[in-house]
Each structure stands twice: as C-alpha cells, then as structure tokens.
Specification:
Length: 293
C-alpha cells in the first residue's frame, strides 16, 4: 500500500501553527485599548457618578486643601459636605480604575497563557521566533504584575479614600491656613494617644482611616501571596510530572515555580509590613505628615 498522501489531503502544520495569531491579536488590541482607558476614563466616569467632576488635578488639590482646613477647624468627627464630596468622588475614581485594571489583568493573563502554551509547542519554529515568543511572554508577565499592583492600590484607595486623598495634601506647605493646620496635626500625632489633653475627633478619624488603609493592603497582599504560592506549587508539580526528555517544558515550569515563589515572598513582606502599620498607624501617619512617608 502506498504511503503517499492523497492529493486532497490538508497540508501539514506550518511553522507558525503553534501561535494562535487571531487570539493573540485580539487580546493585544484589548490590552492596548485598556491602557489609555485606565488613565483617561476614571475622572469623567467618577464625575458623572457623583453629579459632577472636580476639574483638573490642580482644582481637586485646591478643593481638598480648603475642605481639609474646614474639617480640622470644625473639630467634628463627621466630614463637612465639601470634604465628603471630594472623598466620595475619590472613592468612585478608584473604583473605576480598579475595574479597568482588573479587566486589563484578565486580558494579560489570558494573553500570557496563550504565549506560554505557544512557546511550549514551538518545536517547529526557528530559534529566533522562539526567542520572540519568550520575550513577548516575559513582557506580558511584567505588565500583568504591574496591573495586579494597580488593582491592589486602587482597591485600597476605593475602600479608604480619605487616607488616599491625604497623600495629595502639600504637607511641606510653609505658610497659610493649611500650614498652621498641618503643624497642629503633627503636634497631636507626636503625643498620640496622650497629647496632654483630649484628642481632637479629626485626629481619631485620620488615625482610624489610616489603619484601615493599610489593613486593606495587608489583606489584599496576603491573598495575592497565597495565590502565588499555589501557582508556584502547581508549576513545581508540573515540572516534576514532565518527562526528562522534554527539556523546554521542564525549564519553563522550573523557572515559573521559582519566580512565583520569590514573588510570593516579596508580597508577603508587604503584607507583614502593612499589618504592623495597621496595628499602630499613628507613627506612620505622623511620618507622612512630616514628609517621610
């Protein structure tokens, strides 16, 4: 019997068959579109949700400074309407950024998986194309990690917007009402919780919110660290289950297992540091108002 392929048989796999070009193109286009959306969309969307925006960054800073002074001078726990409006806007702003960053993260993870699988199946490709796949995969992984950091940071800002806003205060102001208020806050925090008299309610609110601000990041970092540990364990398991003859696959999973383990350790350090700050937020808040945070 002849072993020649019949005339109408489909051609054999091409050298680029390992790369799902259409899916990679679509996901890459989505990622490219989401990057400017992450930068440009939050302000207008948050403004429309809160009945109006706060202009440009300088206008927002000016409103924050003025309303912050009003809050301190009120001596009340509750935020005055002006500051409350800015805080609500800032929370929505971070919600929008967190959603866009999460979608971008999902797109990059899907793209990274496609590139990794294509690299593992790239036996028929030239060395140059395999190197291009590896470089693209590393680049996408780096972007995914950055997107993850943005998700965490914006969840933190959405859940503790007051402390997030305080990072925008000009803490080095040397004159004016704001400078006087900042000086009073530093003196109160230096002796907190016993500053030689009753603690002003705004100080209590600031310290409490600053603790929540770091608690959110501590929880998020712990979840991420545990996720990285699981991914690392799965990678090492797949490394152990791969035949010794499949060197490329073993190298990929060995490198993946080591990388995710190292990332888990780094994120765990962040979780521990933020947990410590959560337990005693006043010194860190003082360091911020002194310009050292």
């Amino acid at each position: 019997m002849s072993t020649t392929s019949p005339p109408n048989s489909p051609p054999g796999p091409s050298r680029t068959a390992a790369v799902p070009a259409r899916a990679v193109t679509v996901l890459s286009a989505l990622a490219v579109a989401l990057v400017p959306a992450f930068v440009l969309a939050p302000g207008p969307v948050a403004g429309s949700m809160s009945g109006g925006g706060h202009g440009d960054r300088r206008e927002l800073d000016d409103r924050l400074s003025a309303s912050f002074v009003d809050y301190w001078e009120s001596g009340e726990r509750s935020l005055p309407p002006g500051l409350q409006g800015v805080v609500e806007y800032w929370s929505r702003y971070h919600v929008v950024k967190a959603v866009v960053a999460a979608v971008l993260l999902a797109v990059l993870v899907a793209l990274g998986v496609l590139l990794r699988n294509a690299f593992l199946r790239a036996g028929a490709l030239t060395a140059g194309r395999r190197a291009a796949l590896a470089s693209a995969g590393a680049f996408v992984a780096a972007l995914a990690l950055f997107s993850l950091a943005m998700v965490m940071a914006n969840i933190q800002g959405a859940l503790a917007p007051f402390s997030s806003l305080m990072s925008m205060l000009p803490v080095h102001a040397s004159h004016g009402e704001l400078a006087d208020v900042l000086g009073q806050i530093r003196r109160q925090l230096a002796g907190y919780p016993d500053a030689g008299g009753p603690t002003p309610p705004p100080i209590e609110v600031m310290v409490s919110d600053f603790g929540r601000y770091h608690a959110v990041l501590a929880v998020a970092a712990t979840v991420v660290a545990l996720s990285f540990v699981v991914i690392s364990a799965v990678s090492w398991r797949r490394f152990a289950g791969t035949a010794a003859s499949d060197r490329r696959t073993r190298r990929v999973f060995r490198a993946s297992g080591l990388l995710w383990a190292l990332l888990a350790a780094a994120v765990l350090v962040i979780a521990v540091a933020n947990t410590a700050t959560t337990a005693d937020p006043a010194p860190a808040l003082l360091a911020f108002f002194e310009g050292g945070w």
